[in-house]
Every structure is written in C-alpha cells, then in structure tokens.
Fold this protein.
Amino acid sequence: MDPCRFPFKVTRCCIGKRSLPFSQFSDPTLQIDASATVRWTWLKLGVAVTNLTNRQFPLSQFFYASDFHSRPYPTLAPAAHFTAAPPRFILFTVEVALDREGD
C-alpha cells in the first residue's frame, strides 16, 4: 500500500432566486469550500477552507414590516432584512491514526 496519500475535495453550493413576500425575490448565491488531507503512515494533516472566495452574501433574506420604536410613529412599510453568511474560515487538523490502514 502507498505510504502517502493526498485526497482533495472541492464543493460548491448554489442557491437560485427564492420567493419573498410582496413580490420580491432574493439574489442567487454561490459558496465554494475546499479541503485537503495528507496521510503518511500514522500521521494525518488536513486543511479545510469554507467560503473560499470570501464572498459576502446574505445567508437568509426576509422582507417584512418591522417597528423598532425608533420614531414616534410606527414604520409599517416592508423592508429587506438578512442574516450575513459567515466569512472565510481556514481550519487545520492534526490526526494520529491508530488503525492499520497506513501500513
């Protein structure tokens, strides 16, 4: 068996336009993630990157009327609200493999 292996993976998540209330639509989004590992006998090193392009986009979009009592009169006009997607994350792992796969 080969003592050194290097698996690599790229994933993409694409979400098209979604319907929102009041005849509104959300923007399409695209997120790319990647991960790679290197294993040499019993030692395994890995790196994983989420949101590889560091693209800023709304994770969830909402369109509704809200009133935070910032004025003496209620603001009942619908407005767009969103939760932001997480920024780029780079995660490193070190693993000691106790199986016999690396032999």
